[in-house]
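Translate sequence into structure tokens.
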Amino acid sequence: MLRPIGGLLALLLLPVFPLGVEAQSVPTPAEVLGYEIGEHFTDMRGIERYMRALAEASELVTLDDYGLTYQRRPLLQVVIARPDYQADLEGILARNRELTDPSTTAERAAEIARTNPAVVYFTYGVHGNESSSPEAAIWTAWDLASGDAALAGVLDSVIVVMDPSANPDGRDRYVNFYTSTAQSRNNTNLELRERREPWPGGRSNHYLFDLNRDWAWLTQIESRQRSERWMQWNPQVHVDFHEMGYRSSYFFFPAATPINTIFPDHILEWGERFGAGNARAMDAEGLLYYTGQNFDLFYPGYGDSWPSLVGAIGMTYEQGGGGFGGRQVERPDGTVLTLRDRAFGHRTTGHATLITTMEGKSELLEGFAAFHRDIDEGLDDWYLVPGDDPARLDALVALLLRHGIEVEELVSESELSLAAYPGYEARSAFPAGTHRVRARQSRGRLAGALLRPDNPLDGTSSYDITAWALPYAYGVEAHYASGASGGEWRSVTSPRERMGAPIPSTGRYGYLLPPSFGNTRGLVHFLEEGGRAYAMADTFSLEGTHYPRGTLFFPQGRNDELDRRITEAGLGGLVTPIATGYSTTGPDLGTNDQAAIRLPRVALMGGEGTASTSF
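Result follows.
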């Protein structure tokens, strides 16, 4: 179905026929796409077409989209669940949210665990040219909707949520290249043109950003929309399906070291348990695999680590193949790896993951609740001071709120007993507007991983960066303490928007704007629309206010319709109106010691010879 059916009507419409009859009405991939899995690559239109056909044919399947990419391709969500679960989805998710509340008792969690299904979230194809996983998504969705005997009973205990292609723009970039260059018949030759994607390749999104580095930073529209939808589900299990080089076999958890010390034993133990289940399934098929090497669990921005920081068992599964593999490739030992083989590898571990979840459903849900009940174990509360440039704190708080992290603001100046982050001076008085992030909240471990000054590294190497403490990254003074600290605090529910406010009053002579982290975008807009601004080369005082070097001066005498230009640039709430250019100390505003600000001419050099995600 294309949308869930709610209330009693859905219960009255439950199918009463045997599952085999239901299966006969569910179209196979070949019936919709015109080819079997592995014969061709499926572009985003084909993926959507098949998932829509499933949703129209089966009461088990719901298709929705949760947003659009920069190139306006849909971001799809497929939900596969029993019709009664679909009908009670609001209640199931409400009880699931209870499990994320640190105040939920173990007794209440056990009660929920007995009746609620687990939520398993499968993300495929975040790297667009790791091309077999969306094919596996189609295959696995068909298995579930058609009642594959190997998955008997799974949907009694599990709701399956699929993102069949998390990077549609990169996916289609790869598929379009391959389709336009590939031979009509399969060829294992390693020198084929179809194995050599032109720059920039399909790995990244429209802006050539690696979306599997963006779970923590949310710089891209796909990441922001996915995170918002993901947090509505609060899944207990998340698998991020990837590919690696064609010479490799298959990787699944347990993860390699280093492993971030912020993860509790529950996360790591279940990684072992899912690994054992995957191994049994791979052994039964005679497939090669490895665990505990190459892919660690340290950096917080991956599709395994970020979900693990909010309580899911987050795991990366890596199938050998990648974009170089095409439809068929010969490995160094002379064996041939096909696209269907690669999709089958992900299908096999996907099945095994669902079966392991089904077998341990209640224990998994209770462990999920315990993760949140003990969320602040070993963690401090974090305090962020506005400083001379509060726009930096605004930007940091906006990111925390986007993650669902609870933030509070100090109402008035208070004496607090806190420890300073290394590099900052200890203080006892904290100004109004200081922000606090408590560890005891459902996103406490995520907050800790992002905010604490250091994440100890056990080992000498990691798959990605090893330092990212956000207070340092944003240039925000930070302190920490465990337990109550005093002061009156109020909840912050939305980020402070300083841009876009109206001009407080007309500046007869012009406007001043001190240098700030948050001013650049508005200044660029102002200059692009023909405005003129000047940067003061020295400090000065005017009309009772001291201004630092680099303060911007917007003169009425050099700008037509200055008030309109300031407002349209979003700077109205940031500027200070002035009635004179005569300074009480320092240079006057007409000094020669100022520089006209001009738009830079920036050349971004890309193409062959540059790394597409780093240029």
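Note: The first helix runs from residue 7 to 12.
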